[in-house]
Amino acid sequence: MNRIVVDEDKCRGCALCIEFCPKNVLRMADRFNRDGLNPAEMGWPERCIGCATCATVCPHVAIVLVEREPKKKAGAGQ
Amino acid sequence: MAEAQVVFTPPESLSDTLMHYCPGCTHGSLHRLVAEIIDELGVRESTVGICPVGCAVYAYNYFEVDMIEAAHGRAPAVATGVKRVRDDCTVFTYQGDGDLASIGMGEIVHAAARNEAITVVFVNNGVFGMTQGQMAPTTLIGQKASTAPAGRRPEHEGFPVRVVEMLNALEGPTYLARSSMASPRWIRDTKKKLRNAFKAQTEHHGFGLVEVLSSCPTWWGMTPKEALDWMESTVVDYYPIEEFRALPEGDTEGE
Ligand SMILES: Cc1ncc(C[n+]2csc(CCOP(=O)(O)OP(=O)(O)O)c2C)c(N)n1
Ligand code: SF4
Ligand code: SF4
Ligand code: SF4
Ligand SMILES: [Mg+2]
Known about the structure:
The structure holds two protein chains of two kinds.
Chain A: E1 3-6, H1 16-20, E2 26-28, E3 40-42, H2 53-57, E4 63-68
Antiparallel strand pairs in A: 1-4, 2-3
Chain B: E1 5-8, H1 27-41, E2 47-51, H2 59-62, E3 66-69, H3 75-85, E4 90-96, H4 97-103, H5 105-113, E5 119-124, E6 127-128, E7 134-135, H6 154-157, H7 163-167, E8 175-180, H8 184-202, E9 208-213, H9 217-220, H10 224-238, E10 242-245
Parallel strand pairs in B: 2-3, 2-4, 4-5, 5-9, 8-9
Antiparallel strand pairs in B: 6-7, 8-10
Helix pairs in contact in B: 1-8, 4-5
One iron/sulfur cluster binds next to helix 2 of chain A.
């Protein structure tokens, strides 16, 4: 599956990743980080397309990994 | 099943450190772009960065390259000295609009006029962020600042300075552009222009500067997203996003 990893202690809870994610994958988590801020998390990971838009806008470089599945070839894996 | 492909990790030239910037402040993403370019050019071991006085004063903690802290506005003079004794180094300054366009206006104009072989990352957020949101030379007409509480009035505080257009009147500079951090599209454009500004130094031994429109949600009194939207809707009307002077021989990347 496509996925991102948020370094929660670096996250400042600015929500820009949530605003710009084209697939509405992200949301604010209920838990708090070390500084008492709610970090971003993948609420709907199955929608993620691995486009890295969130990492491009993240002002705090808190998104530390974006992974994308290689495209499936037509007819493969059936 | 084929391995998932890593499409993003932070650059090696950026420290794995919590940056002190306010939530949503685009100083941090701009640091990342600069660090990515240093990685991509393969010059990490020979790069020297010069820090400003301003919110980016701690940039020496955030870049994994040698850094020097300059007195307020004097980064281009320090960069000139470093570059002239160590021409093998890639030298950049990172300066706010208070630093570069107010107290440091003399230094930047002469460095540009000399076509000094340095790269300048000029962060225009329209205020003195570090010292609590005072008016900067770049504050827009009508924009509120702590020293212009009713908004900047041209008859009283004068007109905002368009730094790149002004430097473009000089023969000297090799590369001049303006870009913005307002959205993913413009962040990618900023990276291309920054790369050109580094290539102005590494391939053409000349002066390269990008004025990057950046946000200060804290002193603009906006949410991070409102700040970016305001840049997109309003700030660019006065500060057009443009490549004012391209690299020689069309050796340039841009949108
Ligand atoms: C010689 C001197 N004068 C004034 C100051 C106070 N001062 C600190 S930062 C700053 C302006 C910073 O604004 P800017 O360069 O726009 O950076 P920002 O914080 O907005 O990124 C000023 C005037 C100082 N530190 N030194
Ligand atoms: S990689 Fe793209 S789709 Fe996935 S969370 Fe980030 S912005 Fe959304
Ligand atoms: S953009 Fe970055 S800092 Fe802001 S909420 Fe998302 S992960 Fe956190
Ligand atoms: S005061 Fe403004 S420029 Fe400084 S860190 Fe905060 S948002 Fe960024
Ligand atoms: Mg400023």
